[in-house]
Design brief:
Length: 203
């Protein structure tokens, strides 16, 4: 593994993508490779092929965190049932870890899922994925397993989380049209906002 790239003052931007988007390919390839190296199986549940439509609106979504034109983190959700979404494929590039990018992606996915009408999130990770387990617990997810047992005694680890809003029955489109500018974190609040177009003033 080479040295980490130098820190940059450029803010990463959240972008909506499709599973078959070339920009998403590094995410999916690295995710599959890491599962294979760690678990010894090429088709881990989280990386197993699914129809592209599972991760497309209105029931699903794929988000990439892009920095300097490169995806450095990402994740997706798909429909679990009428009220719940399942988050999958959460990934951070190995040379951009420990910067909070996974937390940014997870929070953005939760907001998009709530906007799509879901009221609960399900998330499953492998028992050997200590970082993913810690992220879920730090992000307020409830473990649906005995958290006192060692990872060698557990299989997949299942978590869930209530999104804190009631389903009104009306689903909104969770993603902007492709022509919309990307979401960017506000430099003071950290909340995602729409980047203004040229000639417009920022709000």
């Amino acid at each position: 593994m080479g040295p980490h790239p130098p820190q940059t003052t450029q803010a990463p931007a959240i972008r909506v993508a499709r599973i078959d988007d070339p920009l998403a390919r590094p995410l999916l390839d690295d995710l599959r490779r890491e599962h294979t190296e760690r678990d010894g199986v090429a088709e881990h549940r989280e990386a197993a092929p699914r129809p592209d439509t599972d991760f497309a609106p209105p029931g699903g979504l794929l988000l990439l965190l892009v920095l300097g034109g490169r995806p450095v983190a990402g994740g997706a959700f798909r429909r679990h049932d009428v009220r719940a979404a399942r988050i999958e494929r959460v990934w951070t590039a190995s040379d951009h870890r420990r910067r909070g990018y996974a937390s940014l992606v997870l929070a953005a996915l939760e907001r998009a899922a709530a906007q799509a009408g879901y009221t609960r999130i399900h998330l499953t990770t492998g028992s050997r994925q200590a970082a993913a387990r810690g992220l879920c617990l730090a992000s307020g997810y409830r473990p649906r397993f005995d958290d006192h047992k060692g990872p060698e005694t557990l299989g997949s680890l299942t978590f869930d989380k209530d999104l804190g809003r009631k389903d009104t029955g009306a689903r909104t489109h969770p993603v902007p049209p492709p022509a919309e500018p990307p979401l960017e974190p506000h430099p003071c609040t950290g909340q995602f906002r729409r980047a203004h177009r040229s000639g417009e003033t920022a709000r």
